[in-house]
Amino acid sequence: MPVPGRHEIRTMLRAYALDNPRPGDLLRRTNRALARLLPDAMATVACAVLDLATGDLTYASAGHPPPLLTTGTGTEYLDGVTGVMLGTGIDAAYPVGRRRLPAGSGLLLYTDGLIEDRRRDISTGLGALAGALRQSAAGTAEQMCTAAQQAMLGTAPRADDVCLLAVRTPG
Fold this sequence. Notes:
The chain is α+β, with helices and mostly antiparallel strands. It has helices at residues 6-19, 23-37, 122-135, 141-152; strands spanning 45-51, 56-62, 68-71, 74-77, 82-83, 97-100, 106-110, 164-168.
């Protein structure tokens, strides 16, 4: 069954990003539009802007799990910037995080369906995902996604969707 407003939310995000790509502003503007235009739609969103030339990352979240950063020295979650889900009716500010990513680092964004299911709570899933990427020798963004999928999904049917987006900085 399709989620009400999913396509419309994606379209709003893309249109607003053309005008103002700052993650916190983008999420707040989209949240306000949803309250007026699609009052029954809700969504979690991770928004990140990465300058590949400098490695500067700006990111914000609307109820989405934290991005996972992998570097030559380990893995860490970029926490502390989660705001409310889009479509809650709450006119909230969305905290923004900033980080300079080291050359050759990887960044993984993912939906909660990757880390949480009926047999695994979110805390356990977050630990398992970080451990899986820490142990993998993923050299490319595609290899990061493959390692995450192989470690986390198994063969059991999924009740929730899973989406992954990865990037590897030059170097």
